[in-house]
Each structure stands twice: as C-alpha cells, then as structure tokens.
Amino acid sequence: MTDHMEGDPGFRLADARVVVTGAAGFLGSHLCDTLLREGAVVVGVDNFLTGEADNLGHLGDHERFSLVEHDVTTYVEIPGEVDAVLHFASPASPIDYLELPIQTMKVGALGTHNMLGLAKDKGARFMLASTSEVYGDPEIHPQPETYWGNVNPIGPRGVYDEAKRFAEALAFAYHGAHGIAIRVARIFNTYGPRMRMHDGRAVPTFIRQAMAGEPLTVHGDGSQTRSLCYVDDLVAGLLGLLCGRVTGPMNLGSPHEVTMLELAEAVQDAVGRHPGVQLSRRPVDDPQMRRPDTSFAHRELGWEAGIDLREGLARTVAWYRAA
Ligand code: NAD
Q1: Which of 31, 82, 136, 160 has its CA 20 to 30 A from that of 151?
Q2: Nearest C-alpha to atom 16 of ligand 1 is from which residue?
C-alpha cells in the first residue's frame, strides 16, 4: 500500500524545529545543511558510531543548529517543541553493518522505537530513512514499492535489511495505533561529498583507488548493477516527502542503472586516471541488480533525480581533492 494519504495539512520547513538523528553522517549532515538553508531550527543527534564531527564542523556557530551527543538506542529527552523527527541514525555501509551487527539491529529497532516515542510525545511528524535493501536480492526489476522483497533474514546482510523492515513495520504500527504522521523513504544508493573514503561503498572506494593509481576492485564479474543518486537530488526528494501529504513507503533514487564495470570506468574518467580494474570475490547475498521504480515519487512530488552520474562524480571527486 503506497498511496496512503494522510489528510493532514502540508508542512513548512521555515521555523520548524526538526530533530535529525545520524546528523554527523553522510546523509544526515547534508540534510541538516538544507534544513538550515530552508529556515528550520535543527537539533542533530549522533553518537559518532560511523559519523564524523568534521561533517558538522562548518555548523559550529550556526545559531539555529545544536548537536546532542547521544546513542538513540537509549531514551533521549529533547526539551521544547519538536515539529519533525527525522530518523537517519544507522550504520549504512556493508563494511559498517557487518562489523556492527548488534548496534545496527538496535538502532533500527530500539532507536526507531525511541524516536517514534519522541514524535508521539511532541505531536511531531516522523520520517524513517529506510532503504532499497528491504527488497533484498530482488526478483522484480525495477523495484516498485508494492514489491515485498527477497531478504535472507539470517544471512550476513540480514542485520541491516531486517532492522529496516522492522523499523518500517513499527512506524506503520505507530501511525495506525497512535495516529502519528509518518513518512517512510526507501533510499537507493546515494553518493556524494562526505562519504568516508574507507566506508567500503563503491563510489568512495573507486575514487580512492583511482586517485592513488591503484586498480579498482570490482566484485564478481562486474555485471551487477546499481542506480546511483547524487546526494543533492536525494535530499530534495526527502524534504518533498517530509513536507507533502503521502506516507509512503516511497522509493527515492536514480533510475539510471549502471553495471559496476561501467561505474568503475566513469570514476576513472572523473578522476582522470585509468589504473584499470581488478576482479574480486562477490560478497554473500550481494544483490545482482538494483533500480528503483520512482513513478510514485514522480507522480506525488513531481520529483526525479536530475543530476547525471558524470556531473555527480565530478563534484564528488572535486570534494575529495579539496578535503
Ligand atoms: P552514515 O554512517 O554516514 O551515517 C549514519 C549516522 O548515524 C552516523 O553519523 C552515525 O554515527 C549515526 N549513528 C549510528 N548509530 C547511532 C546511534 N545508535 N545513536 C546515534 N547516532 C547513531 O550513513 P549514511 O549513508 O548517511 O546513512 C544515513 C541513513 O540513511 C541510514 O539510516 C541508512 O540506513 C540510510 N540509507 C542510506 C543510503 C545511502 O546510500 N547512503 C541508502 C539507503 C538508506
């Protein structure tokens, strides 16, 4: 069920007080930047498990930004009014969640529970950063929101996939039982400045390797696909969903699908060095293909990812060079 109309009025960012968990992470920090630009008051919450204080360094003196250092798997009190709670805290790269399996499950389960509790207490709307990983290794292509997924619950990736599936179920339970306004975004692979060089995701790994003149390590035969969305596009979609009237779940991502070999080529072009590729073993349960059906987001929000891969990679490489 994707067309779940709220019937509640739209939401204005200007002067809204917004809690963002995972604020020191890649997406959370970009989200904070845009929220502040739109006039919101932002309270970031992060325990720096996989995030970095540097991502928020430029906001140190911002009068509408504050940061609470806290693990959201335990109760947190946020004094004052809150208009929206955006729950983005979670290890997100396969390297991180394979290393932090229990923390990943706890932040998806207990963290989501605490943040839904906060939203209920404050009468705020709640947004969940869910993921395309709820579709697992999909048997339907591209993936629409109505697809239920193909997840191995006890495989190594299950800790992330199932935590997000539980989080979605819990958000809908709070929506049904307590009537709180929820927004569930199923985010597909997103890239851009501030991804950690060593977080294991393909884009930063390839950029790091190409910049060092080392062969790019491509898993398997490189024919598996991903659809990569530039972070500015994603944030625009997230805020459209937050302010709009539909609950979701809503796919947000780029429909432009590339093989990993094509991605490796595009990164080498963006870096301007061509050390070639080295094929390596494919991780367990690695999805063979991944592309969102974004017709729901397009219909409801008029949203689509507009920044093409070459442009997004050029911007990302420029940031790594300057960092
Ligand atoms: P990230 O690792 O850069 O950011 C996650 C942030 O959450 C970090 O700052 C980390 O310190 C914080 N965090 C983790 N556990 C916490 C806890 N218990 N308490 C407080 N803070 C905690 O990852 P990201 O790529 O920015 O992902 C952000 C969110 O978006 C995640 O929920 C992820 O599942 C979701 N998502 C991201 C992508 C993507 O392509 N980047 C795709 C799908 C979904």
Answers
A1: 31
A2: 89
Indicate if ligand 1 lies below 6 Å from the C-beta of 112. no
pTM of the model: 0.96
Give the tens place of pLDDT for each residue, 73-85. Answer: 999 999 999 999 9
266 lines ligand 1 (CB under 6 A): no
Both tokens assigned to 164:
């997000």
Query: How far is ligand 1, taken at its centre, from the CA of residue 92, in Å?
Result: 5
Active site residues: 160
* Tokens, residue 268: 């080498």
Does residue 88's CB lie within 6 angstroms of at least one atom of ligand 1?
A: yes
Domain 15-191+229-254+292-307 carries which CATH code? 3.40.50.720
